[in-house]
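Continuing the batch. This is chain 6 of the set; chains 1 through 5 are on the previous pages. Same settings as before, nothing changed between runs. Recording input and output for traceability.
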Amino acid sequence: MKTYLFKKQIFALASAAALVFALSSCGEKDAAVKINLPENQEYLSLNIGDEISVIAQTKKSETISWSCEDDSVAVISPSGQLTGLANGVTVITAKTESGYDNVGVVVGNGVKGMAAANPATGEGPAAQRVFNENSPITNVSISLNGMTEDETLILSNGDEGTFRVNVTPSDCSDPIYFESSAPDVVTVDDEGHVVPVSKGSATITATAPNGVSDTFKIFVR
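Output for chain 6:
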């Protein structure tokens, strides 16, 4: 099994999306406002179309003003109702006269736009991944049809399958990103579902938010 680490520049984004996790703790110095987060989470996560109520605590009876950095990814109402609109990352801010707090928000698979390099290999164009670099995942292992990367899997056009993913620690719920080195041969979606397209071979890479990954080669006849 091979393990790759993201190069820090891969996480660089133009505009506010690059600030999602850097900003998530900026407001802590302003103790007058604090956004409540799920236990053991450093960000908010929701699917496209989902709505969640975000609560901020204040030490004074002040009105909270909510804002969202990228309203193409998510919007938040004056009452703190957050709605996911599209895959991507953004920042929400709760502000009062006495202070503010802001946290990162991940919608869907957290993928938006194009980056200059594949975060797993450093080569070729790929969707840009922006997520929590402090993911606790230490190992990723994928298998397909009961086979691992050390075995040869040959598929025919018309065959389909979905990768089984095992991570360490096993109770970690961080998402795994899938990518095919040759989508014209084999496609793979965000759930790890693969479909052969044409004859050839492709390497599927499953990557955790912090860059830990596993690969699997598929031959199509």
